[in-house]
Amino acid sequence: MEARRKLLVLYASQTGNAVDADERLSREAERRGCSATVMSTHDYEARCLASEETVIFVVSTTGQGEPPDSMKAFWLYLRRRHLSHQWLRGVQYAVFGLGDSCYPQFNIFSSEEEPIGRDLPLGKSSTVISIEIKQTSGYGTVEKLDIFLFVAKKLDKRLSDLGAEPVAERGLGNEQHSSGYESVLDPWMCSLWNTLYQKNPKFFPNGPLLSISDKKLIDQPKIEITFYDAVGEHSEYSNTTDLKCFEMEINRARSMPPGKFSHYKNSPDCFLQMIENCLLTRAGCGKDVRHFEFEALSSSIKYEVGDVLEILPGQSPAAIGRFIKRCCLNPESYITVQPREAQIGSCVGSSMVAMKLKTFVELTMDVASASPSRYFFEVMSFFASFEKEKEELQWFASPEGRDDLFKFNQREQRTVLEEQSTKILDLLSKGAAVYVAGSSKNMPSDVLSAFEEIVCNEAGIPMEDAVKWLRELGKAGKYHVEAWS
Ligand SMILES: Cc1cc2nc3c(=O)[nH]c(=O)nc-3n(C[C@H](O)[C@H](O)[C@H](O)COP(=O)(O)O)c2cc1C
Question: I want to staple 7 with a disulfide (CB 3.0 to 4.6 A). Which of 36, 60, 266, 270 is the partner?
Answer without folding.
Answer: 36
